[in-house]
Amino acid sequence: MAHIEQISPELTWRIRRDVLYPKQPLDKIRLAEDDYGMHLGLFDQDILISVLSIFKSENSIQFRKFATLEPYQGKGYGSELLNYLLKTSTDEGFERIWCNARKNASGFYSKFGFVETDHSFHKDGLDFVIMEKILKNK
Ligand SMILES: CC(C)(COP(=O)(O)OP(=O)(O)OC[C@H]1O[C@@H](n2cnc3c(N)ncnc32)[C@H](O)[C@@H]1OP(=O)(O)O)[C@@H](O)C(=O)NCCC(=O)NCCS
Q1: Phi (first) and psi of residue 133, to 5 degrees
Q2: What percent of the chain has pLDDT over 90?
Q3: Mutate to test the pocket of ligand 1, among 47, 73, 124 (most ligand atoms within 8 A of CB)
Q4: Which of 5, 37, 71, 95 could form a disulfide with 59 if both were Cys (CB 3.0 to 4.6 A apart)?
């Protein structure tokens, strides 16, 4: 049975590297902002399978470095983690959630109601688009 818990930034780094930046050394994976963020991990039978990092501002919440270990992709773990984040962000009263989506992952976020904004950019050989979802409290 999978469960989600808050983890230290260091625990995200290996999955971040292996999934998102496979050619980079581990010490390049750290974000300057990591110490100010909150990091969530989804575990199944004590294996850390999917991670993301959250950075909160007054009304909005950004998540970054969302990654599921490759052998476990497409099995619903990422959806479980993102649904958890959407629910907790809504419950905490945030109005907007957003991310810099890799263009090739935009279809994944669309399924959760994220829409592409007009802001897109190219970084490190990859195309990104900012995607956002307005959160509605009851
Ligand atoms: C994107 C990612 C985090 C999703 O995690 P996951 O555990 O694979 O997600 P799920 O298994 O819950 O996928 C749910 C659905 O989205 C689909 N999906 C997964 N990645 C997708 C993508 N890049 N584009 C479109 N659909 C995608 C799955 O096929 C699945 O479809 P289904 O419900 O019709 O079966 C994971 O695939 C990953 O780490 N990808 C590589 C890194 C990456 O692109 N990260 C995002 C950077 S912005």
Answers
A1: -140, 130
A2: 92
A3: 73
A4: 95
